[in-house]
Amino acid sequence: MNRPRALVLRAPGTNRDGDAAFALDLVGADPRRVLVSEVFDNPKLLHESQLLVIPGGFSFADALGAGRLFALELVTRLSEELAEFVEAGKPVIGICNGFQVLVRTGLLPGAGLTVALGQNAVGSTSNGKFICDWVLLQPASKRSIWTARLTEEIECPIAHGEGRFVCDPETLAALQANDQIAFRYAADNPNGSLDDIAGICDDTGLVLGLMPHPEDHVLPRQHPQSLRGHRGGLARRLFEAGVDHAKETR
Amino acid sequence: MAESGASTSGRHRLTVSPHHPNGTATTITIDADLSAADRARLEHVLVDPLLETGAWNGAVGVHQLDIGLIPGVTDTAAAQVVHAAGLLGIDITDAAVGRQIDLDDAIGKADDTEIRRRWANPVIERWRIAGPVEPGFAAREADPAVTESVELPGDDESLAELGRKRGLALDLVELHVIRDHFAGLGRAPTDAELETLAQTWSEHCAHKSFRAEIAADDGAAVEPLLAQLRRSTTEIDAPFVVSAFDGNAGIVRFGSQRTYALKCETHNHPCAIEPFGGANTGVGGVIRDIIGAAHRPIACTNILCFGPADTPDDQLPRGVLSPQRIIDGVVAGVADYGNKIGLPMVAGGVLYDPAYVSNPLVFAGCIGVAPADRPALTGPHPGDRVVVLGGRTGRDGIRGATFSSMEMDATTGDVAGASVQIGDPIVEKMVSDLLIDAWDLYTAITDCGAGGLSSAIGELADGVGADVELNLVPLKYAGLAPWEIWLSEAQERMVVAVAPHEMEALADLAERHGVELSDVGSFTGDRRLTVRFEGEPVIQLDTAFLHDGRPRRRLVATQPEPIRTRVALSCHDPAGALLALLAHPNIASKASIIRRYDHEILGATVIRPLTGLHNDGPADGVVLADPSDDDGIAIGIGVNPWYGLQDPERMAWAVIDEAIRNAVASGGDPSAMALMDNFSWGNPTRATTFGGLVAAVRGCCDAAHLYRAPFVSGKDSLNNEYLAADGTRHAIPPTLVITAVGHVPDVAKAVTPDLKQAGNVVVLLGRTLAEFGGSHLAMVLGDDTTSAVPAPDLAAPGRYRALHAAMQRGLVAAAHDCSEGGLAVALAEMAIAGRLGLEVAVGVVDDDATTALFSESVGRVVCEVRPEHLGEFKDVVGGETRIIGHVSAAPTMTVSGQFELPLDRLVAAFNGATV
Fold first, then answer.
1. Is the peptide bond before B371 cis (omega within 30 degrees of 0)?
2. Which of A185, B140, B155, B627 could form a disulfide with A196 if both were Cys (CB 3.0 to 4.6 A apart)?
3. B442-484 pLDDT, tens per residue?
4. Looking at the domain A5-247, which fold is it?
5. Is the ipTM of this complex over 0.90?
6. Do B50 and A164 touch (CB under 8 A)?
């Protein structure tokens, strides 16, 4: 049986690695939760994997801005290996803190563009308050290997204090033109994100970053209205897409 | 602009101001020789130009308040700056992170009192206006570490004075025993020995009042309270109890696969003086208790009692923080720790009462899981190593156990500063992950909580003995006296006993997890506690004296004589009363707090604290199950201090009933239900205060028996009083929090309170009496008629078993308990949660409509049942079952002959209140 190996990369403070591993296992991957220090010592762990996940959490406590230190570690110690990983056509997903990390490494959105994830804002004032709630996500990119086949909206929770997508107007226009906006908040925009952007992909379509947590809605019973008989909005199809793509790589 | 290429030595201060304004900038002060290029590279990491602007060595304006941490307070952000510089290859000596607030016009009244009240906390911070505050670099000059002998004076007055001066919180009888013990040894105690005894014998650690001999008014002896609770658990003899009142947490086995560790702690005093840090470390501490019970933490709970948010400043006793500041700080502290360590903060409650203004209460709980077939730990064995894991030891958190055991007054914030700390959830997460992987490498485990290493190693060494070297304990900075190392309550540390042949494996694993490990000595087998500093003994205590040498306290209990006459209230505007109740801070939505906590992480949450069609209805209990299968648990909470003020015994019955009922209404099995108690009370040496506690414990034991629900863990926090500068005493109302945790064999059969479908039948289970003592109707009417607190309903346990059976057959579409505000509030909440209307008639509940709608009689559950299930439902449930109406598609709550209220008004009243 072809179970592609998925590297779930942990830093001190990563805390949704178990949720991501559960989702990947469910859709037929072989997830390995590995500390980033182990990968520094043994980069083969990355080479031997066909899919990379940077999961949610508070890497290094996020005390100086979300994801900044984890990104610095990756840039200073693993940047070539990461570039090779994407060049080899292998998919990468960064969720919540992982999205923040990928943005700070420059892997997202790629092509020299820069975006940022700032403190959640209500109106014109950022309050930075952590918010945990459920959101509706509209898949928006045909370029991303993760979302191209998604035909329906996804429902899943958010849990973050720094998720407000920010970029300059030129970058936004480029992202729109390149079909790099992977997900938009379909109902309420919970954090003041520009253009309701919840996630973006890189210009190869292999790297996806998003603030919400699809890994926490892979079973119907994880939905808040499941006891009201609600089904649907499952996010496992997102992981299936990534794992299917990973199966084609070596 | 190009500076010269040469390095600039000394201090470099980077101010990071967000573009999206919130009035606060972050300041980063670096002690290093930095070139312009170094600064640019640091700035590239520390400043995101899309979000922020960075400025080096900018002036602090005359309208700006500059705040920094006091040296020694945990500064995780500064540690990140040092780490980042290391990755960039920039050598820096130290860093400090602070904040700078634009006060604008408020600068005019920013005197010291106002700054303390609004912006900064002198317990952990210092500040300056119009200039940079001195950065809180860790002190590098070390005083020589010394241990002193402490002569204990022969006369009582000097002895008591010595106890007060050192903050020992021991009474004269206890001090005499210590003096006599050392007289027998022919030497004076060392400071380390005296401090160890004070911590170990503190109310906080030794639960002196719960173990005290009790003399009733009539002189009759009453069994000590802890013995009563333990005996009730033994007598109930529930098959699912693995361990009760032993070690760090109670342990139960539900189903065949899993054991659960249960613990709930109080962290009241620290939250009064440093709300963020107090709540933060309260959460961290209770999670460590679960790790210390060799279980993997899976969920947290918290119950918060605050003064009303809108209390005017001029009504605050001197030295007391404003309730809004305490609320903001506590909620942020709970959210910070729970969210960062990655545990769902699921169940809880928030209560407001003026009596909590000077003494807020913070109850923090945690639940853990382990495979049922894991063998029990057998150590420590003689020869095992004493291993300290996790955070480093500093001067933070000295004497927390004794501080928590004393009353507070206006000077408490100043003198107890060192007792309070800021937690580091990332370190605790790493320690937790390590210990989950390493569970077969240690023979015994406990956490460093109150009393630090003294209580952790002291407890592990009980009956075995240990010999440890304090010089091997890793320190945050040099210069700690041996007794400070031994007593420090620095956070995120665990102690494990490890067989010598497992040390290498554990050390390897610790290194891989990035956790610092120190082998500080061995368990000996000589039943003595020997603590050394650089080889020289600083403590040589017989463990029997340390743990059993404390004289038993004797307390007098004056039994309360509560009014137990039922008096009906009259309410002329039931619709107005219902809206007022829904908007009352104790009943209204707590969404603004609940949504600050991650309740989704781990993917195990089945019923959330907010539920229903729009996720905004209050759930009874929460239900969790690991996503790998459908076998889970329900958690219910009961608390009602307003009953406690009038009738502590009936309060105990009522809150146990409420906790169990909440769990059962969500799908918990009443035959597999364990309880935790948390008593927060006033000064137990006052006979009436202690008498109330005795009555409450009696109620607890009697109720536990009736419900066959054993207590497995508990914690008491006494002396919750504040002595104001003017001599007035502010005591909290007697507050008992009960947490019920029950088995849910199949979470697919769990039930939520939201109405599901128009046409379904609404049924009330249980009997309703005119019980308004301590009721919320009395509160909103401003009616101070004294009348009976709700009486126990002896038929409730049978009703819950029948209800559970009906749920297992799928006969219950929705269920909701009646508690504060009675049936009317319960019905309104079900309608809000389901966004459906109701048509009910309450004549069958009671002839008196006010009693029917608003009485708080216990034991009652409202159920929604499909018409085709009604016959079978009645057969299964039986007993007091009253059909009161049906669910309607029209968005209106109609109580026949009383009122009609549009659903959106109910929603607005419930959701409109802000915190």
1. no
2. A185
3. 999 999 888 889 989 988 998 899 999 999 999 887 778 898 8
4. Rossmann fold (3.40.50)
5. yes
6. no
